[in-house]
Amino acid sequence: MSTTPEHPEARLLVPSLMFIALVVAAVASLGTPLITSVATTFHVSLDSAQWTLTIALLSGAVATPVLGRLGAGPHRRATILATLAVVVAGSALTVLPLPFAWLLAGRAAQGVGLGLTALMMGVARDHLPEGRSAATIALISVVSIIGAGVGYPLAGLLAEFGGVRAAYGLGLLVTAIAFLAAWRSMPVAPGGRSAHVDIAGALVLAGGLFLVLFLASERSLWGHHLAVAVVLATVAVLLLCIWTASELRSKTPLVDVRAVRHPIVAGANVAMFVGGIGMYVLLTLITRYAQTPHSAGYGFGLTTFVAGLVLVPFSVLGFVAGKLTPRVRERIDAPLLLAGSAVVVGGGFVLFAAARSNLAELFVAMGVLGFGVGSFSAAMPGVILAVTPKSETSSAMSFNYVVRSVGYSLGSAIGGLVLAAGTDTGHLFPNDGAYTTAALVGIAAMAITTVTSLALARQRSAVSTGSSR
Questions:
Q1: Residue 126: pLDDT above 60?
Q2: Where is the Major facilitator superfamily (MFS) profile domain (predicted)?
């Protein structure tokens, strides 16, 4: 087992891995609280401004498997630095006084950084002792989730006092610091590895994911042009099927689909997909509910910044859960932890559905959600990496993060569709019951995730029993 060499860069490695994962997640999430500000600043519609978030998710989903494959090769350090340089350049575009199209280009470049999370895990697994690497990987997974909770209130505060450019300026500052941290601390990959990127496969995957995220973000398309939406959904499925078939035939696949087909890995990805849908439903519901004015008959009329503070319990308890999970895993198998975490997230939905008449109840529900999401995110790498070769760490986890991104996008879309269906004609805001309905949808998603995780636990138990005979 390789260990971190004794030199100054070694002491910076773990903090740098955590910081980079946090920064790329927080910067990618900057689009969420700034949508309204972007619409007013650039004089575009809210649907157009929504693309400042969607395009970051799309570029991240496409870049993740590509970077995961490059990270499995000998040029991982160069890949990390080049990617962070792209993110810094994109951050500069969001700050400069350029037209809206340039802002979208900058947001796309920032989204590429989402692909670095899996590479951070690969570095930890290669260069830290086994016990420390497992805990570090769990925390990297957690901070990649709670980054949204960190970025949201800060972006809201800067947007209120300095405008949208000031909020994006925060992204430029922290990404530049992340680049310097990576330059100072990232080690080279172990020798004897090679990596080949399937460019054609990446393009097909990009097309399929673009249609999936487009359909998830353009909710009005399903209501006004159902036939077009169905055709685009069919094309998306075909492209993803073509990509899967080509990956199975390729000698140098973008993602090792055969490894992904392993029952445990496949089950973990299903749990991540369905769980991601449920988790993001509640995350978007609570912040939207908090900002709804009293005139709607519910809500608290909070500003963007104050509504962002509702995410503080999510981030704090998510981090606490991430620190505790590696210790709990010493006594409880990772799939059982996934199941328990899904139950906790479901509990957050129950709290929101049953009690949301005052702000304290929203804080409690968000704290429960954060603890469940943090535990779930920390346990997930242990499930996948237990059956994954060390050299394929980045690739295997990158696929899991693509699944998570798509699940989050669909969760956001499903929440929006439920609220839209509960909005009466002529009214701007949905009725209060629509939030209860959306919460019930989330409870159903987490119930499916719990059952899937329990099935994984039985599968792991059967494998362990068979190997001990």
A1: yes
A2: 10-461
